Amino acid sequence: MTTAVKYEDGIYGLEQQRVRAFLIIGTESALLLDTGAIEADLPGMIRQITDLPLTVVLTHRDGDHLANLPLFSKAYIHEKDLEAAASQLSLSDTELLPLKEGEVFQLGGRSLSVNHTPGHTPGSICLLDEENRALFSGDTVSYGPVYMFGGHRDFPSYIDSLRRLDQQRARKAFDRVFCCHNSCPISPDVILDLISCAEGIMDHTIQGSPVVIHSGMEVLLGTVGKAGIYYL
């Protein structure tokens, strides 16, 4: 089941149990961030909320964010995740358009700038609405656990991305984080915990506990404060 949850004026979560997409609405247009993990009539749900022109943007290439992409004619994704996402849409007519760091989506009263935050995937992005002090973090920032196992994960890049986000946090570019998994919105302070957790996993000062995730796979879970990271 997919439900629409209004977080605040202009920000809706399209909730699907473990995963959420976001509908972000300005005065002139709207933006759908990700398309969910299970099939749903997202265009129909969106029309019930707004009839403004819609742009679709993907935070990254993982399949639990792409399920309803074939329902849309085009979508933007960072260039470093484009090929991998396209391979999952071989029978779809959806046109994937490349994104780069610093590009801006103007919605009217909302300007969403692209932050390239590789680590979880090579092309992971966050969208920053600095005027309204909101960060849409995809899977890069959450209370977690953040998935950091598999061939396309990169701990050094992830730590660097978190440090750059923390610089924005320190200058108060955002005061709340809208993430695609678990609790939402959350405090930006979790970025510091994620940095400590990722660094501890890399230098082996954190010894993760074995856990079995929903797929039945056994991984290790490292935690610091409210942050958690799955790894091998």
How would you explain this protein's 3D organization?
- The protein is of the alpha/beta class and about 230 residues long.
- It has a single domain (about 5-145, about 150-205), classed as Ribonuclease Z/Hydroxyacylglutathione hydrolase-like (Metallo-beta-lactamase, Chain A), CATH 3.60.15.10.
- Helix content is about 20%, strand content about 35%.
- The strands form four sheets. Strands 1-2-3-4-5 form a five-stranded mixed beta sheet, with helices on one face. It has a five-stranded mixed beta sheet with strand order 8-9-10-11-13, with no helix packed on it.
- The longest helix is centred in the last third of the chain and has 16 residues, at about 155-170.
- The chain is globular and about 50 Å long.
- The chain starts with a strand and ends with a strand.
- The model has no long low-confidence stretch (mean pLDDT about 95).
Provide the fold topology.
Layout: E1 3-8, E2 11-16, E3 19-25, E4 30-33, H1 42-49, E5 54-57, E6 74-78, H2 79-87, E7 95-99, E8 104-106, E9 111-116, E10 125-129, E11 134-138, E12 146-147, H3 155-170, E13 176-179, H4 190-202, E14 209-212, E15 218-224, E16 227-231
Parallel strand pairs: 4-5, 6-7, 11-13, 12-16
Antiparallel strand pairs: 1-2, 2-3, 3-4, 8-9, 9-10, 10-11, 14-15, 15-16
Helix pairs in contact: 3-4
Largest sheet geometry: 5 strands, mixed
- The N- and C-terminal alpha carbons lie at a distance of 32 Å
What CATH architecture do you see? 4-Layer Sandwich
Shape: globular
**Lateral strand order in the biggest sheet:** 1-2-3-4-5
Secondary structural class: alpha/beta
- Average the pLDDT over all residues and give the rounded result: 96
Report the helical percentage: 10-25%
Global Rg: 17 Å
CATH fold category name: Metallo-beta-lactamase, Chain A
The amount of beta strand, in percent, is 25-35%
Number of extended strands: 16
- Level-1 CATH class name: Alpha Beta
Count of runs of 4 or more consecutive helical residues: 4
How many domains is the backbone divided into? 1
Q: Unreliable runs, pLDDT <50, ≥5 residues?
A: none
Order of helices and strands: EEEEHEEHEEEEEEHEHEEE
CATH superfamily: Ribonuclease Z/Hydroxyacylglutathione hydrolase-like
